[in-house]
Amino acid sequence: MSGPLTSLAGRALDAIVVGGSAGGVEALSELLPVLPAKRGLSVFVVLHQPRDRSSLLPDLFASRCALTVCEPDDKQAIEANCIYFAPSDYHMLVDVGPQISLSADELVHFSRPSIDVLFESAADVYGARLLAIVLSGGNADGADGARAVHDAGGVVIVQDPRTARVPVMPQSALDRVTPDAVLPVAGISMLLNTLNAKEFPNDR
C-alpha cells in the first residue's frame, strides 16, 4: 500500500509538518527521535490535546530528540534544527519571515490547534520543500492540509490506517489526496532515517 517514495535523502526539504490525535504520542515517540540534528530542518507538530491545560509534549520529547524542542511564542522566528509543538488552545501557523504565528481563531474540526491550519500555512511558505505526515487520530483534521501540501508540490506521507490506533484521520487524508507513501509508523521512521545521509541538496 506504499507509494513510489523510497528515500528522502536526495529530496530538498526545509521543513516537516506532523499532525495526529489519538495514538499520535506513540507514533511521535518513534518518529521524532530519528530526525538528524544537523539536517537543517524545521519541524512543526500539532497533536490534538485538551485545551484547558498546558501541553506536556515539549517536556516529554526534549530528552528524546537530537533537535531542540520547544513550545513557541507568537511571532517567534523559525530556526533550523528545531521541533516546535503547538501550544494548547492555539492554532500554530507558519508565516512569512519565516516566523510562527499563534491564533485563537475558531476551532477547526472541533480542534485548536488544528492540523489543517498548520499544514496549509506551511504549504504557502515552503511549497515543494515541505514534508507532511498524517498520523493516527479520530477526525478529518489534516486531510485538507495534506491536499494543500500536495498541491504545492510537497511530499505527503500518511500512516497506514490499518496500523493506526484510530484510523479515521489517516483514512480521511487518503480520501482527500493521493500521498507519496502510505506506511506503518515503523516504515515512516525508516524513511525519515534516510535524512541522515551525509550529503544533502539543501545544505547551505
Characterization of this structure:
It is a single chain. By secondary structure, the protein is α/β, with parallel strands linked by helices. The chain has a single domain (15-195), classed as Rossmann fold, CATH 3.40.50. 26% of the residues lie in helices and 21% in strands. It contains 6 helices and 9 strands; from the N terminus they run βαβαββββαβαβαβα. The protein has helices at residues 24-31, 57-62, 115-126, 143-151, 168-176, 185-193; strands at 15-20, 42-47, 68-70, 82-85, 91-95, 99-103, 130-134, 155-159, 181-183. Helix 3 (115-126) runs parallel beside helix 4 (143-151) and helix 4 packs parallel to helix 5.
Shape call? globular
Could you say which structural class the secondary elements and strand pairing correspond to? alpha/beta
The biggest beta sheet is recorded as: 7 strands, parallel
SS summary, helix count? 6
Q: Going by CATH, what is the homologous superfamily?
A: Methylesterase CheB, C-terminal domain
The CATH architecture comes to 3-Layer(aba) Sandwich
Tally of individual domains = 1
